[in-house]
Amino acid sequence: MPLSFSTESARRIEALIKQYPDAQAASMPVLHLAQDEFGFLSDEAIQLVATALKLPVSHVYGVVTFYTMFRREPAGTNILRVCTNVACMLTGGYDVLKQVCERLGIQPGEKTPDGAFSIVEEECLAACADAPMALCGQRYFLRLDSKEKVDAMIEELRRQPQLERTLLPGPVEKGA
Amino acid sequence: MPVTRADMPKLVLCNMGVEGQNTLAGATARGAYSRIAKALAMAPAAVTDEVKKSNLRGRGGAGFPTGLKWTFIPKGAQTVYLVVNADESEPGTCKDREILFWDPHLVIEGIFLASYALGCRHAYLYIRGEMMREHHVLQRAVAEAYKAGWLGRDHACAGGGSFKLDLTVHRGAGAYICGEETALLNSLEGRRGWPRLKPPFPAVKGVWGQPTIVNNVETLANVPAIIEKGGEWFAGLGTPKSGGTRILGISGHVNKPGVYELPMGIPLREVIYDVCGGIRGGRALKGVIPGGSSMPILTPDEIDVPMEFDALMTDARIKPVEIRPGVKLDIGGGKQLRTMAGSGGVMVMDETTDMAMVCWRIMKFYAHESCGQCTPCREGTGWLERVTRRLAHGEGRPGDVELAESIASGIAGNTICPLGDAAAWPMLAFATKFRAELQSKITAAPATAHGAA
């Protein structure tokens, strides 16, 4: 069956387009929405977004490939983003990353065989005062300054996965 | 007299750490939106005048006077946009994320006041893609502000007219470059985040071809206090040319890292040794980056300087950055580069820090984030990453420090946007101030024709 947006998503796309002077500007929000719905941005999903916004597929493809958070492959349920930039590096960020990779048995950019985790080596996530840190969905893991804290983070995410979701139920309607 | 820590009022971080207060009810109880009536009774130009008088300077990094920027909108412009830059991603910077989370309504109020001054009827807030928690909080706050009628409803204003503002939160998707204002505008238009050539400046031709003002989150969060207490009062808190307070995010090897609202002119030494309780383990300071990773690093004998925009650029106690020993970098019109206040991200390094490793990690970042549009940056940042990686791993080749300097000077000033400078400046600063340490990483024999970089 060919890919299609749910009725709710189609409604939200209409509302998103109205927030901007032209439909092209809705490219990123609609791509976020498509990624939420389909898990990643396949060729078919890109085609679908292009059709919804009446844009050339090449344009939408160009947008998708510029931004690191748009995925062309399925990711793990938890996308665990571990920062190794300067503030985190100074306080042990590379040790955190190493331990996470060892525990999960994968490297940054990979997904565990059970699909529970992907690891991303992140650039600065703007929580430097609480370095070293990691982010999964809306959940921040701060001051990961011991092996126990890193293990506890992984255990928590196994029990209670944190999905990357982009929009609250129902967008803010323009002039609502 | 500029305020000290003892008598400084908090203007922006009043609510930091207070759970449950980032809702409309919590914010309103603390006075959010109470400045709107006062502003609407003023002419828009009078609001801008107040901001001009306040000496408020842009908190995103460049420190440009905000009120002056607002006057660059061409007279008679029909459609004007305010775009809020919440794409905080300069390494070491961690203030806007806190402001957005703890006080989204203060930011929305600031956006309302600025939009009224500018004649903007639809503002856009561009939030960094990774800030999923803050995006959620902000969306909820915007929905509340619509429901309460602050957004999306006509308000009577001076001169008998009315003013109505819409606000859209636009989420990025992971690209440091989109913090550069023209890249941000392209991204907002649904394009790849490639910076635009300036001129035309956004104030003349910005998003969707219309006059646009791009302001940082912290900048706008200061506007309600300016309207409430007046521009002169705000100016009086700061130093002669920089009004208000300053939020610094201090990270690295200090005992009490944190995000602090501090007096504008506080010396860096006081920040490290007093506010942050000194260096961990009582060790000695080795270096400190004062304003995000693109700003030149300071050595322990350079920290008595106030953390104010002009002082960090001009204070003679800070050694100018060189392109090779004895030759100062010229950043235009013969101007030297010492360092800059940047985005307020202070990264402190103790005596155990391997400066070659820090330098490499910074170069790795800019190489990863170069958008690829300009050759000097696209090729140069990658090259700098390879050279500094060798140095960081003790595999430097003779001439590598000079090579890094020549690549960096080839990038500086030769790109569309400041990302090129953002990589070149710290590279040159490390070579200027930690040259011997970088040189000590050179172990390999001279490169042969086969092994040349």
Characteristic key phrases:
heterodimer, A: 176 residues, alpha+beta, Arc Repressor Mutant, subunit A, Glutaredoxin, 2 domains, four-stranded mixed β-sheet, 7 helices, 4 strands, disordered C terminus, B: 453 residues, alpha/beta, Rossmann fold, Ubiquitin-like (UB roll), de novo design (two linked rop proteins), four-stranded parallel β-sheet, 18 helices, 13% strand, globular
Unreliable parts of chain B:
none
The CATH level-2 architecture of the largest domain in chain A is identified as 3-Layer(aba) Sandwich
Q: Label the structural class of chain B.
A: alpha/beta
Strand percent estimate of chain B: 5-15%
Computed Rg of chain A: 18 Å
Share of β-strand residues of chain A: 5-15%
What do these coordinates show?
The complex is a heterodimer of chains A (176) and B (453). Chain A is built from seven helices and four strands, in the order ααααβααβββα. In chain A, strands 2-1-3-4 form a four-stranded mixed sheet, with helices on one face. The two termini of chain A are 36 Å apart. The C terminus of chain A is likely disordered. In chain B, the strands form four sheets. In chain B, strands 5-2-1-6 form a four-stranded parallel sheet, sandwiched between helices. Chain B has a four-stranded mixed sheet with strand order 8-7-12-9, covered by helices on one side. In chain B, strands 3-4 form a two-stranded antiparallel ribbon. By secondary structure, chain B is α/β, with parallel strands linked by helices. In chain B, helix 5 crosses helix 7 and helix 15 packs parallel to helix 17. Classes of the chains: A alpha+beta (176), B alpha/beta (453). Chains A and B meet through helix 2, helix 4 and helix 5 of A and helix 7, strand 5, strand 7, strand 12 and helix 14 of B.
